[in-house]
Amino acid sequence: MKYIFFCLLFILFIGNSIFAQKARFTDSVLLNEVTVQTSRPTLYSDGSKRIVLDSLQLSTNKTSNLGELLTKLGSINVSTYGTAYSASSVSLRGAGSNRTLITWAGFPLNSASLGSCDISTIPASGFNSISINYGAVGTLYGSGSFGGAVDLEYKPRYDTVTNLNYSTSYGSFKTFGNEISLKTGNTKFQYFQSTTYNSSASNYRYYDYVNEITRKRENAEYRNFGTVHYLYFKPTKTIQIGIGAWYGIKHINIPSIVGKTSYIQEHQKDSTLKTFADISYVKNKHSIKLKTAYFTDFTRYTEASSLETKHSEIYNKPLFLDLNYRCLINSNIKTDIGLVYNRINTFVTGFNDSKKKTAYRQ
Questions:
Q1: How far apart are CA 230 and CA 277, in angstroms?
Q2: pTM assigned to the model
Q3: How far does Cα 204 stand from its chain's mean position?
Q4: Closest residue by Cα to residue 231 from 246, 217, 219, 221
Q5: φ and ψ at residue 13, rounded to 5 degrees
Q6: CA-CA distance, 1 to 111, in Å (whole number)?
């Protein structure tokens, strides 16, 4: 009798377990395969300090340039040679600005002729990811990154969305800031653009301690325009195609120093046109990414007086090609193979001389 009783209990227990598992599988939601991928600087920078700016910091500084944004962090040395939108540079870990690399979509923005990057020409609203790497990351970025690197990226999210935003700011001395952005797309494509325009008369009064009089600042106006566009397309789950374009132009007048009444008008014009394209393939444990970029940077400094006008110009036209293959063999072993080709054309005109330089790195 006891044997029959234990058999009934066993059958009842097994039956309840089967029905419970069936009910659990009925209520379960099957998820599609998810592939997690990251960039090489993020993957191989575990040993160095890395800060990623959050979305709140970016959304509240849409009319600012990158120099103004990084100044608010406090932990970065930003040097500005004048007022707003004057030439600015950033340095990390005590290294100079020519040892701190600025990248956009993985491509270096530092000037081949000057070594540094004027971050006053970079609109803070053109990116949704800004990260700062404080390590000596020459093995990841190449030369010019001994102090660290600042990465500027736009990472698309394939949601069905359409957003149109406008931001404006106003300050003293006819200082205006405007930004308009558009984001639209679905699960197959994403488009984002951000356009900014900033201007100021900068004609404030100051005390000239050399001549001991109060003066009104003259010849200090600036105008800055920038627009950044991204288009990403995902035809399949494993392939993504992206292109980006960035155009900017800045006009700034350079006022005379304190104590000097200058009869020379100084002016600087900076313009840039940058484009990139990339295609990536990710499947299981393998990923392949091919990207290319072409930049055109131009700077003209002008000295004008009643007697003569002098110009000094700098052209930089770099071309980049980058091929990367990555394979995750197991949880402890992975391979990463890359091939990088850079060609840089630089043309510099002095007041009495001109030089041209072509550099190759493979």
A1: 10
A2: 0.82
A3: 33
A4: 246
A5: -65, -45
A6: 92
CB–CB of 246/272 below 8 Å?
A: yes
d(CA 139, CA 320): 17
Alpha-carbon span 266 to 305, nearest angstrom: 9
Which tokens go with 65? 């340039």
Of the candidates 183, 280, 267, 272, the residue with the CA atom closest to the CA atom of residue 234: 280
Q: Is the pLDDT of residue 25 over 50?
A: no
| Phi, psi angle pair for 11, to nearest 5° | -65, -40
Residue 357 pLDDT class (50, 70, 90 cuts):
low
- Report d(CA 81, CA 56) in Å as an integer: 28
- Asked if 346 and 316 count as a contact pair (C-beta separation under 8 A), the reply is yes
* Diameter of the chain measured on Cα atoms: 122
- The CA distance from 100 to 141, in Å, is 10
For the purposes of burial, counting CB atoms within 10 Å of the CB of 331, is it exposed (0-12), middle (13-18) or buried (19 or more)?
Answer: exposed
pLDDT average, residue stretch 263-277? 91
The CATH code of the domain at 40-361 is 2.40.170.20
Q: What distance in Å separates the CA atoms of residue 338 and residue 140, rounded to the nearest whole number?
A: 11
Q: Which is more confident, 84 or 44?
A: 84
Structure tokens at 355: 């030089």
Q: Which residue is listed with tokens 């002016």? A: 267
Q: What is the CA radius of gyration of the chain?
A: 28
Of 247 and 82, the structure prediction assigns the larger pLDDT to: 247
Whose tokens are 């660290």? That residue is 148
User: Do the bridges between strand 100-104 and strand 148-153 make them parallel or antiparallel, or are there none, so unpaired?
Assistant: parallel
Q: What is the DSSP string of 34-97?
A: ------HHHHT-TTS-EEE--HHHHHTTTTSBHHHHHHTTSSSEEEESSSTTS-EEEE-TT--G
d(CA 279, CA 327): 17
Burial status of residue 160 (CB atoms within 10 A of its CB: 0-12, 13-18, 19 or more): exposed
Q: What is the average pLDDT score of the chain? A: 82
Q: Give one word for 319, left, alpha or beta, with left for phi > 0 and alpha for psi -120 to 50.
A: beta
pLDDT of res. 59: 83
In this prediction, residue 187 has a pLDDT band, given cuts at 50, 70 and 90, of very high
- Per-residue pLDDT of 90-141, as tens digits, reads 888 878 788 889 999 989 998 887 788 889 899 999 999 998 888 766 667 7
